[in-house]
Amino acid sequence: MTSLFDEPRRLPGTLITLDGPGGVGKSTAAKLVAETLTAAGVPVHATVQPSRAPLGELARHGTDTFRGMALACLCAADRHHQLDAEIKPALRDGQIVICDRYVASSLVLQGLDGLSAETVWQLNHGVYRPDLSVILNGDPAVIDHRLRTRGGHSRFERAEDNSDMESGLYVHAVVDLQAKGWLVETLDCTTDDAATIAARIVSLIHRVIEEKIAVCR
Ligand SMILES: Nc1ncnc2c1ncn2[C@@H]1O[C@H](COP(=O)(O)OP(=O)(O)OP(=O)(O)O)[C@@H](O)[C@H]1O
Ligand SMILES: Cc1cn([C@H]2C[C@H](O)[C@@H](COP(=O)(O)O)O2)c(=O)[nH]c1=O
């Protein structure tokens, strides 16, 4: 079980994670948020999970082959490696890291494969707690329409009832993350366009940074 006692030391940068059902608009929002912050002169490192490293690519393109514990281990191993190799160095450097998918995705997707939340937390033991975890969610029928129009990326997204299942499981994941002491904000993405969603995330990020600065004073 993760506890605040075995949490890694906090680093100068800010980790913001985006999760939510397939097709809700995470990647679109992440790109717009990174562009907005970069244009304002803020040092940003945009990244994605699974990572673009070989282990991450295996997980990303392997959802038809790998299931259950095997996929859970691949995603967790990739996350631990990416934290050490890419994310923590950027945080040490004081950057804002925007990460498209993180632990909430494992709670939901590996949950769909039958793993308990406890098992997912055990595999993710010691991961860096984000400064803010943003969950994008909304009306499953609207999310499903976006997903079907764009096309599914994985076996999860090709399942007929995916949006219903994921949308419900993210509500449970929020409760779970908050119980672990994570700061979580849920944004409803049913009606707002991508630019509006991104602007709301940017203002949440500014608030988090201002609060960090206030604590350091
Ligand atoms: N707020 C929005 N309103 C309407 N359409 C949107 C919105 N955000 C994104 N889209 C569109 O919905 C589709 C899915 O968006 P996107 O690929 O960003 O989702 P995602 O959550 O990253 O998906 P995945 O989980 O599969 O990576 C795309 O065609 C995108 O242009
Ligand atoms: C982070 C994470 C990812 N996955 C799987 C689910 C998808 O097949 C890919 C992500 O691709 P997308 O373009 O972002 O939809 O990886 C997973 O099973 N568990 C995870 O924690």
From TrEMBL:
GO terms for cellular component: cytoplasm. GO terms for biological process: dTDP biosynthetic process; dTTP biosynthetic process; dUDP biosynthetic process. Pfam families: Thymidylate_kin. It catalyses: dTMP + ATP = dTDP + ADP. It is an enzyme of class 2 (transferase). Keywords: ATP-binding, Kinase, Nucleotide biosynthesis, Nucleotide-binding, Transferase. GO terms for molecular function: ATP binding; dTMP kinase activity. The keyword Nucleus does not apply. Its EC number is 2.7.4.9. Residues 18-162 form the Thymidylate kinase-like domain. Transmembrane segments: none annotated. Belongs to the thymidylate kinase family. PANTHER family: THYMIDYLATE KINASE (PTHR10344), UMP-CMP KINASE 2, MITOCHONDRIAL (PTHR10344:SF4). Phosphorylation of dTMP to form dTDP in both de novo and salvage pathways of dTTP synthesis. NCBIfam families: DTMP_kinase (TIGR00041). This is Thymidylate kinase. The gene is tmk.
